[in-house]
Write a structure and sequence with these properties.
Structural class: mainly alpha
CATH architecture of one domain: Alpha Horseshoe
Number of strands: 2
Bound molecules: zinc ion
Radius of gyration: 17 Å
Helix content: 55-70%
CATH topology of one domain: Leucine-rich Repeat Variant
CATH superfamily of one domain: Leucine-rich Repeat Variant
Length: 124
């Protein structure tokens, strides 16, 4: 099993208390609650970890995660991860997500979003 620094995601041995790359104190990580760990995992260097974190934050409807999810959406170049983040943002707060994506997406993408949104509303 590989271990990574929760802050800079440098690979490291399992038995250290401090990251040799960025100096992060791993005892601080131990004290974070589960949702805070999920929020940090959104910037993990393994794509499956990022995807799972976004999915779980959405399912758990963690409002504190909204700013980091929005940041990751803007930052990412990976459309699959962006789609997962988008779904999580809609799961957490539909109205806030709609406002964010209206401001963020332009042209063709905004048309796709509006159509999807209208179809979702009709289903529910
Ligand atoms: Zn580090």
């Amino acid at each position: 099993m590989k271990f990574f620094c929760p802050k800079c995601h440098w690979e490291m041995p399992a038995d250290v208390v401090q990251c040799s790359h960025c100096g992060y104190d791993l005892n601080r990580w131990q004290r974070l609650d589960y949702d805070q760990k999920l929020i940090q995992a959104l910037s993990h260097n393994e794509v499956n970890t990022r995807m799972r974190a976004a999915r779980l934050l959405g399912l758990r409807r963690i409002r504190n995660a909204i700013p980091e999810l929005q940041k990751q959406f803007l930052f990412s170049q990976d459309p699959y991860f962006q789609a997962e983040v988008m779904e999580a943002l809609f799961d957490i707060d539909k109205e806030a997500a709609k406002i964010f994506f209206r401001q963020t997406l332009t042209g063709k993408e905004s048309v796709i979003l509006e159509r999807t949104w209208e179809q979702q509303l009709r289903k529910n």
